[in-house]
Amino acid sequence: MRRLASIRGLRTFCIAAKCLSFKQAAEELYITPSAVSHQVKQLEEHLSLTLFERQTRALALTKVGIQFYKAIQPIMHELDSTISEFTSTQENTVITISMPEFFASELFIPRLSEWTNLHKDFDLQVVTLKPSQTSSKTSDLSIVLSNSLPSAGLIDELFSLSYVPACNQTIYDEYADQGYAGLNQLPLIVHRARPWAWHQWADRAMIDDFNPKQIIELDSMFAIARAAQQGMGLALIPMPIGASWFKEKLLFNIYKDALVTNDRYFLVQHEGSKNVYAMRTISEWIKATYQNIG
């Protein structure tokens, strides 16, 4: 019977494939680059496959290397999770998760007690980020807003976003029956990360005479929603994440047209975390709670 590949070699391959650098993989594994190269070479010989293209200053996966990584990486992640589960101590495990501010305030924090009440042996650190900030390198998990698939870690898509025009009740009562008149008479509030969102919305709604009086850019989605609630003007609010503002009648959907985008929230489980069992536990709860909401 043919001998199975070693777990050590498979784990080394996965980390090298993630980093695309034997040197970085060596730093993560606390071994030498030559040891990483040797273990990968042994795996290639065992499989009778060439997994990497070794270039002078670069390392790239071959086509079969990509296929093998996609097949074996989830298995190695599950193995690490199982080992962590059976070797965990009685001390509380600390999990760090980073996420956009608006996701934290509108979705995560309001329902977090559902998880903490069931898992009192885990401590949780939540790091909130502005759109211009990247996920913390020290986080075990990240919730990421992106219009494309994140490039690293175990990725699960949670839900996609659309944007709807909203205002407070005073503006709604005055302009709701006037068609699109309010668009050219009131300030339009938009996120600095999406400065052309109102123009994109107008194109989608097929509004030919779109000529806004004033555009106000803010760098916080919470600030945008609050500004609209205070009567500053009309704002584009992301849905379904902003649903509570409408449910509580703090905002009103003044026009039925929605801007459908490629913006999506993703859950990213970062590789190399020492808290694999705890990370898997909260990841499953996040997916069960937020996947395909709306």
TrEMBL record:
A GO BP annotation: DNA-templated transcription
PROSITE patterns assigned to the protein according to its UniProt record, in alphabetical order: HTH_LYSR
Statement: the UniProt record of this protein carries the keyword Transcription: yes
This protein's UniProt keywords: DNA-binding, Transcription, Transcription regulation
Keyword set includes DNA-binding: yes
Listed Gene3D superfamilies: Periplasmic binding protein-like II, Winged helix-like DNA-binding domain superfamily/Winged helix DNA-binding domain
Parts of the chain that traverse the membrane: none
Residues annotated as domain HTH lysR-type: 7-62
GO molecular function, one term: DNA-binding transcription factor activity
Family annotation (InterPro entries): LysR-type_TF_proteobact-type, LysR_HTH_N, LysR_subst-bd, WH-like_DNA-bd_sf, WH_DNA-bd_sf
The family this protein is said to belong to: Belongs to the LysR transcriptional regulatory family.
Protein name: LysR family transcriptional regulator
Species, as recorded: Aliikangiella marina
